[in-house]
Please model this.
Amino acid sequence: MNHKARMNKTPLLLLLLLFASSAVAARAQGQAGGAAATAAPAQASAEAGADGIALAPARVELEMQPGSETTVVVNLDYRSSNASAQSARIVASLNDWNITRDGQVEFYRAGTQANSASPWLIYSPAETTVEPGRTHSIRVTVTVPKEAAPGDHLAALIVEQRPDSIKFTQNRRQVVVRYRMACVFYIKVPQLTRRGSLQNLQASVDASGLTVVPTLRNEGNSVLRPVSSAKVLDAAGRTVAELPEGESLPVLGGAELSQRLRIDKQLPPGTYTVKYRIDFQDGGRTTEGVTDLIVK
Model:
């Protein structure tokens, strides 16, 4: 190539939206320390004709000085095209979260992870009734301790429907959907650093196509959101398959990520070259990795 206290490994509703590329929706000036809040919008709803609850924002990034405090609002929007839609009882809680080396998002009990920001968050209300056609707000106050270490500190506000609020009608066929959504928080304490590197590149084939696995490392203390692309060239140097440029999963501070990238194209037998290009968005140059691929 060139140059714990685990709770849940299953992705929550909204998870793909939480970490996908999106435009900045708002920048709010915080209290007592001038925290800048970047809110990425996300929405989850049921199929047309069914009830749905949207949570926004689904990602909140706050750059805050030690000893400062700010308050943000997370909104629940209950939409329904069903005139008989009923209210639902919603419960909020806090979790820690992390992204594993293979790209899975895991949730943990609040305050159990080394970079947890959960003890810094207070939210209200903890429980409420949401009504169809209305937006309901949860206020989250973040207080950063004076001794907070530089870097990203993580927490997740989990919003879910209370099981005992689901009503069943006898002698009627019903489909019941329970909502469990997350708004993830990055509390960024300055002196932030971001240093990305491409550690390894592998490629393999199977009956349905090929898999490219880059291993990325972030030696800084704050999240990276790289932009990458991949090409497969034949022996004559012609491009025979590719992945267009796009944003990868985030690489958290001090973490490694080996995300499997699929190209659903069958290649005839031969020798190929796989080129993977990545911009870590850390102020450094674009990096290119190259590896050989033999199809038999």
Notes: The CA atoms of residues 89 and 162 lie 6 Å apart. The radius of gyration is 22 Å. Confidence is low (pLDDT under 50) at residues 9-49.
